[in-house]
# Entry
Amino acid sequence: MTPIEEFKSELLPSDLTYFYLGDKDLIARNIKFVQNHHSMLKYKLFLSALFLSPLALICQGKWDLEKCIQHALDNNIQIKQSELNLQLAGISQELNFGAFLPNLNANASHGYNWGQTIDPFTNQFATERIQSNSFGIGTGMTLFNGFQNVNRYKQGMVNIEARQADLKKMINDVALNVANSYLNVLFNQEFLKIASGNLDATQQQVDRINKLVEAGAAPKGNLYDIESQLASDNASLISAKNNLNIAKLVLVQLLQLNAQEASEIEIISPEIGDLSALSLPSSARAAVENALANFPEMKSAEAGVRSSENGVAIAKGRRSPQLDMSFSYGTGFSGANQQPVGDLELTGNSPIGFVDGSNEVVLAPTFGYSDFQTKPFGDQLSDNINSSLFFRLTIPIFNGFNTKAGLEQAQVQKLQADYILEQTEQQLTQDVERAYADALAAYNNYLASETALNAAETAFEYATVQFEAGVTNTIDYSNSRIRRDNTQADLIRNKYDYLFRLKVIEFYQGNALTLKQ
# Structure
């Protein structure tokens, strides 16, 4: 199960909207990605089944929009890079959390010394080669640093939110691109059907006129004219096939299919239904409000502002004194640490004073050990235990303007983040308003092309009757057919253009986009 499918099964078991979180276990250690399921569900990505048929097609070579989008999300490199950025933000947040914890390190050493030195464990001079060992463990932590660690942790949380929003925006962009290419394939498929039907109809006219010519009921020039139309229709069919192949190629490249999958792909034409039943909202206001409140572009820009605010707080914290604590515990061994072996023995006499009056030297016996050995390793480790506890206060006074420059940079970055948020709000508002205007224009074009097609079809039917009755010539018939064909092409183009732009408006309104009426 892919991460998309895993998260979909947990959060949206009955919804056709998809989200992708990247490494869920990693993010779960740092944040709660979804703080409000209702607000998440309210924000629908364009990954819903835009043209989903009532029954999903499971044939490997047949692709509907849902399958196209799912495959694109699973294989798009930009989405994978965005996932990695989200994971890196989670890893950075682990480091920010670790700054609150004390460090703990163990150390051990083993060495030899030649020449005169002071043995650290006996405090005596040693001139021979001495083996020494030391073992210790130490810990330390920052007790106060102007709340820099606190603000870094807050900034890390905001950065994760920003990377999540960036990932959702990337998913939106990929889905919209796939949907647009998918619609372009559908348009070219319908146009190919029209071109093929026109060729068949012209071929029937060629056969009919050929019989009339053979019977002497029509001049041969009529046959030449209609054969010319047949050649033109055949060229239109070839052009329609080429356009369809190019449209499929664009979609295949977006889906990143391999050669085998690309050769077997078959795009399913959905049941669109009556477009007149679909209506635009009265204005773009609701779509604008929803987009500004929920779209990932805004979430990312807002997170950037909060992150820059934390950056300013971090920079101010560098002006504060810093208090650190450290504790160490250790022991060691020295080859110069000797202990006597055996019992005390008389080693001689030594003067201890003089007798009053006679000045006779007073001698006293001296005792000592005749043999020594290195004190055992275990005994030295227990005897040489030492520990220390230190507190260190660092007060910044002057450090080459680093603190001052850092604060000024953070304040400038805060202003930049404010401008980015304002620019994002303006751009998103303009995008929604432009999408609404485009949808309204597409709707008017669609209605106009419907009216034009009805008139063109009526005229063509009349021209056909006149042509077959021998009242009009081939040129008039062909011109009427061309006008009908052009209006058919306009209607198809306007139909898909209106459908796509209408669904984009619904997307901006936060609704799940579907053709189910």
